[in-house]
Each structure stands twice: as C-alpha cells, then as structure tokens.
Amino acid sequence: MTPLDHGAVAGESFPDAAGVASGSPTGSRSRRDKTTDLETAIDRYVPDGASVAFGGMGGRDPEAAAREIVRQEKSGLTVLDDARTTLFDIMVGAGCVDRYVGSWVGTSLISQGHNVRNAVENDVPHHLEMRDVSNFGSSLMFLAGAMDVPFVPTRSMLETDIPEHNPDIEVVEDPLGSGDDLALVPAATPDVAVIHVQRADRLGNAQIWGNVVNDHLKARAADRVVVTCEEVVPTETIQRHPELTKIPFYAVDAVVEVPFGSHPWHCYGYYYADLPFYREYGQRSRDREDFLDWLDEWVVPHEEYLERIGAERLATLERMEAQLNDLPPVDGDAEEEEGSR
C-alpha cells in the first residue's frame, strides 16, 4: 500500500521542495511575506499532472482558484478530496481532471454534476476515473497524511462494496489478535492543497470560522498549500483570536487575497450563496455546447468575473449573510469601541 499522492512525474519536485521536506524554517514556509496574485500562485503550485485537494465543503469552496486552474488549461490532475461540488464539475467539464478519489460529487441541492456524469458514462471530454471512499474514509485519508503514517485502520466501509471496487483500500485481519477485519485507508498526500479562508495575514496564518471540514488536515498532508482569503489582515488582528487560526504559517506557501473567492458558494460571515447563479449553471451544464459557452462567459480573471456579477448583486449577498448569520465581531474592534464609550 502506498500513499495517495498520484502527483508529478517521478524525479520532479516543486520549487524549494528541500526546505519544505526538511521542515527548515529557511524554506518557502518561513516567516516571510507570502502574498502573491492568483494567476502566479496557480501557475507555480498547480502543474499539469499534480494531485490536488480543495478546501471547504458546500461553503468556503475555492471557486476562484478552480476557475483560474481552468483558465490556465491545466491538465492530467488527480483530485483527492471529500465531498466536492461545482468547482470540480467545472474542472471535469473543461478537461482538467483525469482521476478522482473521494466520497461524493455534485452540485448540492441545486442540480446534478452533469459534467462528472458525462465524463464517467460517456468519456466526454475524456474518461474520468473514480475511486470511492466513505465520507468518514475521506477524512481518514487526510488524517493519515497529516500524521505522516501510511494508513489509518477503520471499520468504516467493511459492510459495503467500496473495498471491492477501490483497490487502494485493503481489508486485513486485526494484527493484534481480535479476529476482526479492518479496512486500511491509505494516506492522502496531495501535491498541493488549495484552501479558501475568511482571512489570513501575510505570513500565512489562516483563520476559519464556521465549518472547518478537513482543511486543517489537508494543509498538513499536502506538500504545498495555497491559501486564498477574503482579506489579508495584519498579524496583530490574527493574534487577537488565535483560536481561529486553523492553518498556521508554517504549513502555507502562498497567500492570495481573493474577495468573493467562494462565489457562487457562500463564505460564512461574509456573503450568502448565489442560488440563482447555481440554478443557471445547473441548467447550462446539461448541454455540452451550452456549458462551453458558459466557460467562455465566466472563466475569466477574477476581477472581471466580479464585474460581470455586478456590485449590487454582491452587496445583496453580503446583506443576506448579515441577516441570516448574525456573527459577533471577531477582531475585537467593536468590543474595544464599546468599552471606550
């Protein structure tokens, strides 16, 4: 059993790989300014043939980063993930992905993943290999990767046909003598994890509120980590609430400020999901030619994408989020102002 990396060609390495692999503070993950732009981050850290994990799940998904992957016409990717939604369907339809290992794909309550289904059933635009694990199993993949162990044993999936159809999962008898069978879930060690968060500082300390999903594990399991965020803030702001820092600077290679980087998904505390946009995508992705027209319309640089959405529509999503999720201030500013009155 080998870890699920399925990444770059043997013998190749990413920039500064030695510094990262050794844990050296002088490598690319040292305490330095890691901010860059989205185009540069994707170009550098997501080469053709890489294995990629994406953060979020039905919210805080790195949609802007995925569109940039499509815009740069990346190919031969393996996606190692848990439950993945629209961004995966878009990348599959654009021909970027060859293989998927995870538990679920679709577009949630709005539609099916028409491009994924078309690739699996009809090889359009080309065949997509799928290897299933359970929801819990996908979490264990990244737990093993984060712990730097080759696998994690579990009873999950034993009463299913998943091990029969996924050769990466081995069923063995308990070596400690209980007589029970155990499923061995191999570690997921993606070449790169792309994770969207609410805010980060320039060093890479990334803060998440709401559902963390497996993002803290993905960041530790991956060889490289690109953090996109709604806003880059001073380190002093991060330090006011250290409990929100789910991904520390020493796990991060690049930081990119991408406002509305999860649109059309929601980002907890910032904006609500753009459900009409989703419905339109669900309809247009049913037909191949209509989907290709959709790509031409919406896979553009992020600033242009936001202009096409429109400032009024984005402001409406912000108001909806404020009404539906009344969050307390997280940076301490409001409390300080109240105390000074």
From TrEMBL:
Pfam families in alphabetical order: CoA_trans
Domain of life: Archaea
GO molecular function, one term: CoA-transferase activity
Keywords in alphabetical order: Transferase
Region Disordered: start-end pairs: 1-34
InterPro entries: CoA_trans_fam_I, NagB/RpiA_transferase-like
The protein, known as: CoA transferase subunit A
Protein species of origin: Haloarcula salina
